[in-house]
Design brief:
By secondary structure, this protein is α+β, with helices and mostly antiparallel strands. It folds into two domains: 3-192, BirA Bifunctional Protein, domain 2, CATH 3.30.930; 195-286, no CATH class. It is built from seven helices and ten strands. It has a seven-stranded antiparallel beta sheet, sandwiched between helices.
Length: 286
């Protein structure tokens, strides 16, 4: 079900809605590289600080770690990379993947934050086979409970790096679905392809709708890792869309069609969701 994006950003699992429009479980993964103008230490600390935000995690109660302490995870991740370089002599510079950031969201009202954190931990354990340190931070500041899982790219004995294979999307989707089923949570038994993420669904010859084209454009712009929402809007305009703001609402028009409200796209395409993705998942390296 996964479709590879430009650069290293990949939409992994978008069971966005059933026939009644109810949001189901979604996952999204990003590879973390050293940010422009920042050190490796600053980049990793920025990411872990975002995930562990006390205002979103019940003052840190909803943050857990595996083979690392949430309070010092950034330092431990950094030290492991230094040890890896000393042991192997390998250094990929700015191309190096420092960590993997997985975002896992759940259907509103169906899960407690504590259970969400437990499921996020189980997802990371099965995905990495217990060979890599990680933290799981459960955010409760939105209508839907969601996890931010930060996985160290260096393994526990500092001799290998995690291999993010092309089919990682299928792997994470399958693991997440299996765990949700074990806990009696909602999954889409026969998931339909997402609404045009990073291009049309493979094998689908049907022409995309105006809405699907806009979603494709948003995905492509997010893959460029804009620094903030203002830059996101500029990049959208560069693709040929007209942007209009009325009050606090943004709408977009392209191909001579009518304006579409951003909030009408729902799921991971509302302004709120896009801002969160940009704030927490900006891994741009150029």
């Amino acid at each position: 079900m996964s479709i590879q994006a430009r650069h290293d950003s990949r939409v992994l699992h978008k069971n966005l809605s059933n026939e009644r429009g109810v949001i189901m479980a979604t996952t999204r993964q990003f590879s973390l590289h050293k940010n422009k103008g920042k050190t490796i230490a600053q980049t990793i600390t920025d990411r872990t600080d975002y995930a562990e935000n006390p205002d979103k995690t019940r003052k840190g109660e909803l943050v857990t770690g595996y083979e690392c302490s949430p309070q010092t995870a950034d330092v431990q991740f950094i030290l492991s990379k230094q040890q890896y370089e000393n042991k192997t002599g390998r250094n990929q510079g700015d191309r190096d993947v420092l960590a993997y950031h997985v975002r896992q969201a759940f259907k509103p009202g169906e899960i407690t934050p504590e259970l969400a954190n437990e499921i996020g931990r189980e997802l990371a354990l099965r995905y990495t086979k217990g060979g890599y340190a990680f933290i799981v931070a459960t955010h409760i500041d939105k209508s839907h409970v969601h996890n931010h899982i930060i996985i160290n790219s260096t393994n526990l004995d500092c001799t290998r790096k995690f291999r993010d294979v092309k089919q990682s999307g299928r792997v994470i989707r399958r693991i997440s679905d299996n765990i949700c089923l074990e806990y009696g949570l909602s999954v889409v038994e026969n998931p339909k392809p997402s609404r045009g993420s990073y291009g049309s669904w493979l094998g689908d010859k049907k022409q995309p709708t105006h809405r699907e084209k806009l979603i494709q454009a948003i995905d492509a712009v997010l893959a460029q890792k804009p620094a903030d929402f203002k830059e996101f809007l500029k990049l959208i305009e560069a693709t040929g869309y007209e942007v209009k703001k009325r009050g606090n609402r943004y709408s977009f028009r392209g191909d001579g069609k009518g304006f579409l409200l951003l909030k009408s796209l729902k799921g991971e395409y509302t302004e709120e969701a896009i801002r969160e993705i940009i704030e927490g998942n900006n891994t741009r390296t150029n």
